[in-house]
Model the fold of this input.
Amino acid sequence: MEIKKDSRLRNFHQAKWDEEIIFELSVPGERGILVPEVEPEIQNELGEVADLLPKHLVRKNKPALPEVSQMRVLKHFLRLSQETLGADLNIDIGQGTCTLKYNPKVNETIVRSHKASKLHPDQAESTVQGALQIIHEMDGYFREISGMDAFSFQPSSGSHAILVMASIMQKYHEVRGEADQRDELITTIFSHPSDAAAAAVKGYKIITVFPDKDGFPDIEELKRVVSNRTAGLFITNPEDIGMFNPRIDEFTKIVHEAGGICGYDQANANGILGITRAREAGFDMCFFNLHKTFATPHGCGGPAGAALGVTNELKPYLPEPTVAFDGKKYRLDWGNEYSIGKSRVFYGAFPVILRAYAWIRSLGAEGLEEVARIAVLNNNYMLANIIEIDGATSPYPGGKRRIEQVRYSWDKLYQETGVGTHDISLRMCDFGFHLWSSHHPFIVPEPFTIEPTESYSKAELDEFLDGLRHIAEEAHLDPETVKSAPHRSVVHKMEESCMDDPKRWAITWRAYLKKHKGR
Amino acid sequence: MNTKKDFIHPYIPNSVPANKEAMMKKIGITDIDQLYEDIPEHLRFRDKMKIPKAILSEVLLKKHVEKILAKNISCEDQLSFLGGGCVNNYVPAICDEITGRSEFLTAYAGEPYEDHGRFQTLFEYESLMAELLDFDVVNVPTYDWGQAVSTSVRMAGRITGRSEMLLSDTISPDRFQVIYNYCHPLMKLTMVKHHLETGMMDLDDLSLKLNLNIAGIYFENPSYLGFIEEQGQEIAYRIHGIGGEVVVGTDPSSLGVLTPPSQYGADICCGDIQSLGNHMYFGGSVAGFISSRDEEKYVMEYPSRLFGVTRNEKEGEWNFNDVAYSRTSFDGREKGKEFIGTASALYGISTAVYLSLMGPHGMVDLGKKLVSYANYTARRLAELKGVRLRFNASMFKEFVIDFSGTKKTVAAINQALLEKGIFGMKDLSPEFPELLNCALFCVTDNHTKDDLDTLIDAIREVIS
Done:
């Protein structure tokens, strides 16, 4: 179907280099970089290196890495970068729950300073005062954002922060002698999968509360499942469907009365900065993803980072070390009485913390609130437009408004045309967009989740909407084009079954050669 | 009432009144605050967050942050011999060029179509590491070495159906704390002693601790304390004898010269890729790898993303996608293997670039250089009065020096070195009671002979 004249859609084609696998570029003898030679005095003194090592542990076969000259290596990875869309080039609002916003370039300039990149974790504290100051000030800002009393930046990601919350919860019950009895963790189906999965790593039996007819987590169900076996509740709010649960403080009260503690998953905080906080909702712990709300780049899937906050009662349980300040000097503090120990080697994802620091300072309190307000405005603007698209719906009537994202459904379109959410995702590639479905299981049929953040202009939101409209219309008029997409992406529609077949899957090049080329 | 109309931040385009009003009109509201009407008043935060005022100009923001960072003294400002899981290896310019590319830096979770390059690059990362490790499966990077061991231990537990793991007692205590927290309370961790003279595992103690509840063993080679464990094959033999899994942690920068653990009996190999093309960032830019044979019983236990390749012969295209996605918690929530989320992919990309540049000869040259520098420095230091090499064993790039004979504490020597502009060594006294007044040194490819001699001369002066 042709692009309409008044549409903002682009006549797009993604870069397609047909680039080889790096091993195919190997030419024996080519070098990408040289290691400086060992000085002759040392060589003469020591003799053969092999003689300095245990004979049976000297590697016999050189690692079969490719041999490629420097510019060709550069070109190879530059081409692969061009075959990656990236939020900087995309209107990246189709990956709801993940808050793909603008990652300011000045933060990249700052983070490249050797005063950040070339710090070793075991340097004397007097030589890392700047780094410790950044972490300490961040602790203060996050107390304001959440109302909690102390923060750790040791968790490596949101999911990892959930693991740390589960560890703190478990230790808390251990100290009270109730850890064996309290073996159940309650979460909701519209909280991130890791709220269930990371808690299960600590041995918890997971109880999942489903939504009521309005789409809110069913409070009657919560009342039924709490007991003296309840260790705690991990819940997102707004949940992944984007509605704010107005009875959230009742949830924490119910769990507290049963003797459990409550962890607030604030991965979806972008619409509520300065608007509503964990403290007022009665939580004992919460965490924020620095790579989401706090604008650090996602890096193809990390580095990530999290700020994990607790009330004074749980402060002694935080991972060690935290950063203390006596008015003159910053120091690492190892004095948390019931500390869970460590969740990560050293002290946390410092480059991520540093970028998030710069972002917060750029905005200030007023700016953070403006971020939230515009993110919510953008989201409700998208909602008002998307529900007018034939075939798209926004399930759940509960909230009059949505906060920072909405989980929509293409089910009506699917029933009418046979074109479903996966087909539409792949067709969106043809216009330079990314559209994700949603986390499993698909409680909302044929789902997609849009989170526009504060970063994109109205014109860009309109362009994305034109993409959805075009494809929804195309699904009716020319479903085959949608179902056979992508047509203008890097590669064509692929056959996926081999990825689940142990005989055929190939997770490395050497495995591919063995399984498919008989080498 | 809207009080925000004057705040136009460069990061927030729709604060502009024209945009805002058009959008509010479409929604049918007159004030953005109406969008928060579902939040009850008692849950509203009506105070102001006490966060410093915005630094709106980019130049002033940059100056502000750089002024704080200027309080740091970096390993570029002065010499450093610190290691212990984070090293100041040289990072080739092209690594930074590639990881700084907008496309890689800001991509996240695109489909294998619009993010073909992300999938291919991380597949190549897996493949390059596989050659170094001589294993057919490598995961997309996890958080760090601590997480990589933790997951490897849990994999061993699931594969064997057993719940006790043996660990060498010479591993990094920092790392051990991570492993302990991750395994508690489902898996019991039992330490195996080492020989005080060599650092290597006490095989008698190992035998005493073997029984049919043991899921396997974890040890490191080269070890955290620098020595090379020579008994890998024997340890593996004994563990396999009781049906356990052998997990070995390794420094991948050693594998140009040292035999990879897969060749002496490891079932799972893990470690950190910080040393392969990544900076240090105060220990914050680490990333863990896990690898194994390509057998279903291992592959299906990884919680991580695993990217696979297939060939579309009709279109003449390489295709990449997730292998066995149903393993993951993305698919199965608490029924998935552990959990998965955003981890450390960009560091994997840097390592892919690094290994492509280094090639086989680069990794051999690097290994030889580090072994030479470590031995040279250790020998020279051991010639000083009151100073001795702690372990009678081969070394790779790190080694332990015992300063007990100097009548000076490591802390005092370190302070004196700092005054001479050297980050000297890691004090092991707080970590290992039997290593009182011992310290860990690390050499890198960033050093020259002059640097090594500077250290040796400085220590000579400090202790005399």
About this structure: Chain A touches chain B through 219 residues (CB under 8 Å).
